[in-house]
Amino acid sequence: MASVSSSSRLNKVVRQQYMSLPQGQKCQVTYIWVDGTGEGLRNKTRTLDAEPAGIEDIPEWNFDGSSTYQSEGSNSDMYLVPVSMFRDPFTLDPNKLVLCEVLKYNRLPAETNHRHRCNEVMKTLAEYSLWFGMEQEYTLLGLDGHPFSWPTNGFPAPQGPYYCGVGANCAYGRDIVECHYKACLYAGVKISGTNAEVMPSQWEYQVGPCEGIHMGDHLWVSRFLLHRVCEDFGVLATLDPKPVKGNWNGAGCHTNVSTRQMREEGGLQHIEAAIEKLGKNHKKHISTYDPHNGQDNMRRLTGLHETSSIHDFSAGVANRGASIRIPRQVGKDGKGYFEDRRPAANCDPYLVTGIIAETCLLESEESS
Ligand code: ADP
Ligand code: MN
Ligand code: MN
Ligand code: MN
User: Which residue range or ranges hold the GS catalytic domain (predicted)?
Assistant: First the structure.
């Protein structure tokens, strides 16, 4: 199989002729949702008669859940409830992307709609002014599933020169990274940075800080944009937490967390109190930090390659081999935020931010 898709080689000059046609008052709105795998994203587009001013102007819609691993064929209509609106960086203004929650026929949240509960938790805890920042790592693959631009038979030179590297022998696929960054900015996704990762063809971008429920919304839309940009280039982005076995880094989704108290004078003691609670709930968190109950992270959290062991909880200042890291600057300032390094690249950000919020701020004493 060719490593780059045929679609990506269609004539883009011809495409441009049509893309620049005026569209009158009409507005294209692309509805985006998480499918029944809890990892996959789906989307479909409809025309509205006018540009929506806000999310309340975008009507509910529906789709066939039996084709997305989301329902039985006999009762397959699912509701799409618009929750967050972005600009469409592909068809441009006035067109929109809209992230949706999925409800079943009885209007209860679908199994993989973890936003619903997360939103309730975040509303309950609004007074804490919870901020999150997530570091999304991912790996570029050719259509054949082989890491993008790696030798067909064999491996690139060992890890070392690639992290934050520059040059054709260090940075594989930067076009995608730069286009995705611009697409996020245009869309209104709160992307805050990017860097090449330790393994060649592996990259990271950061989203945040975002308050409460917005973290999950922005991360999911950033992932949609990533897959969509990769489609244009004819390659794939995988969020598999350990795409290449052996002496190659895995991919995580480090989650940085703070409350207003943690950010203020004397914040470190609130950070330490939160870490203490996290330590008592390690197993519960591990089973929530990837879509397969910890099985995916099992391959990644080995204690090697800048990870902690999946079996142990640890925390430390500037320690990248710990479950929780307090950044050096935060240790020095005595306030700021902490980083949970355990979530896998393919985690659901609603589950991750939700359980961190609950453990640190809702539960008194519980162990697992
Ligand atoms: P690392 O050194 O772990 O690679 P990065 O620079 O990649 O750190 O990511 C830092 C993340 O921390 C960013 O997503 C940023 O939005 C987030 N962040 C910064 N300050 C805060 C804060 N006060 N609360 C929560 N998240 C924060
Ligand atoms: Mn980072
Ligand atoms: Mn990283
Ligand atoms: Mn990090």
Answer: 114-368
The residues pairing with 325 across neighbouring beta strands, listed in sequence order, are: 316, 339
**What ligand is nearest to the CA atom of residue 198?**
3
Give 237-261 pLDDT, tens digit per residue. Answer: 999 999 999 999 999 999 999 999 9
pLDDT averaged over 10-residue windows placed end to end, the chain, 368 residues: 86 95 98 97 98 98 93 84 98 98 95 98 98 98 95 93 96 98 98 98 98 98 98 98 96 98 98 98 98 97 93 95 96 97 98 98 64
Q: Which ligand lies nearest the alpha carbon of 256?
A: 1
Q: Is 208 near ligand 1, meaning CB less than 6 Å away?
A: yes
Of all atoms in ligand 1, which is nearest to the CA of residue 207? Answer: 14
Q: Is the pTM here over 0.90, yes or no?
A: yes
CA–centroid distance, residue 350 to ligand 3 (Å): 20
Sign of the C-alpha dihedral computed for residues 208, 213, 217 and 220 taken in this order: positive
Structural domain boundaries of the chain?
A: 6-111, 122-362
| 204 backbone dihedrals φ, ψ, rounded to 5° | -140, 145
Structure tokens at 310: 């999946």
Under CATH, what is the fold of the domain 122-362? Creatine Kinase; Chain A, domain 2 (3.30.590)
Q: What is the four-CA torsion angle of 223, 101, 338, 358, rounded to 10 degrees?
A: -160
228 CB within 6 A, ligand 1: no
